[in-house]
Amino acid sequence: MKRQDIKICVITCTRAEYGLLKNVVRCLKSTDGIECQLVVGGAHLLDAQGKTIQMIQDDGNDVDYVLDYLSGDDSEVGIIRSMAKCTELCAACYEALQPDMILVLGDRYELLPICSAALVMRIPIAHISGGDVTIGAIDNEIRNAVTMMADLHFPGTNEAATNIIRMRGSDKNVYNVGEIGIENLANGLFIERGELSKKFGWNANKKWLLVTLHPETKMTTAENAEMAETLMRFISKIKDVQIIVTYANADCGGQEMNRIYESYAKRHDNIYLYPSLGQANYNSTMSEAYCVIGNTSSGIVEAPILAKPVINIGLRQEGRHRCSNIIDVPVCTEDNLRDAMTKVQTMNLSPDNYWGDGNSSIEIVKEIKHYFEHDEK
Predict the structure, then answer these.
(1) Same domain (yes/no): 15, 157
(2) Residue 239 lies in a domain
(3) pTM of this prediction exceeds 0.90
(4) Is residue 214 within 8 Å of residue 242, measured between CB atoms?
(5) For residue 308, what are the contacts with CB-CB under 8 A and spacing of at least 6?
(6) Are residues 326 and 244 both part of a single domain?
(7) % helix / strand / coil in the chain, to the nearest 5?
(8) Using one digit for the tens of pLDDT, what is the confidence trace for 81-113?
(9) Residues 205, 168: one domain?
(10) Long-range contacts for 159-166 (Cβ within 8 Å, ≥24 apart)?
């Protein structure tokens, strides 16, 4: 099928997700024959998460549709209500924009209503980062469900591609493009330490510790709160270090974790807390930190190419490949964290590009064009 103005609708609902998608958006917008539609919703609209829709617009993007579905209640029932509203809003969105394809990334719960609405409305789905394994979170089941609904697949590793092929019983439209987050690091455009220090008021002469701990979606709110409390109690005792903490995401239990972070930041002058640093600031901070601690995928995927030690807490990333920079702490106790921090002091790491070479966006857009040009639906 050859046609002009293929409408590709990119949907983003969290700050981390947009940070990974922004290069794809830029590449789509600069490609002849493609109209890039941008739909923004969920946590991007929350003050508590940094209201990052403004960041998206500051990047020069027009927002074509807004999905305001969050109920304000991050309990299990509250999230289900949000999903129900998201389904209804997606139907209206797709009816208004008439996209030829939607493009989504990852494994968060809102992908179920986003993709199921597209499936029923017979809109092809392109999915980035399918085929991964994270058995410690419901993300695993969500990701696999999206894989079964999707038409185009852009996994980040050969292992992930193999998993998709096994699930679908076919290798059609499965393209290993590398992990998309590597693209933000491969260009080497980092903000210098002195500029970061001036911007945020951090002491450039002290070590920086970057902390990002999200809820484990297979744990209760109380268990997630206990994990956050243990981590904050431990790091608050570390001397002569600037501790940079980013808020937990909008998963179940995230609000309670953020209240714990806020209480420690108020009591400790060396703990700096941010709803969102923004992708460039976050990556630059990670490149300057002596260690990353928490359970964020950026520690698993992006930190290895920066040769940064990562203390990975709990089971949220269970099942992902481990580069040599990872120290796993499955059970979050102060003793276990102390042992892990001792190991950090002796690590001698080199950059590891296991997760890709930084050309994901170009490959993704190329295969999307190929899909339509060759009528592969």
Answers:
(1) yes
(2) yes
(3) no
(4) no
(5) 286, 287, 289, 291, 292, 325, 349
(6) yes
(7) 45, 15, 40
(8) 999 999 999 999 999 999 999 999 999 999 999
(9) no
(10) 159/131, 159/321, 160/129, 160/130, 160/131, 160/132, 161/131, 162/131, 163/131, 163/132, 163/133, 164/130, 164/131
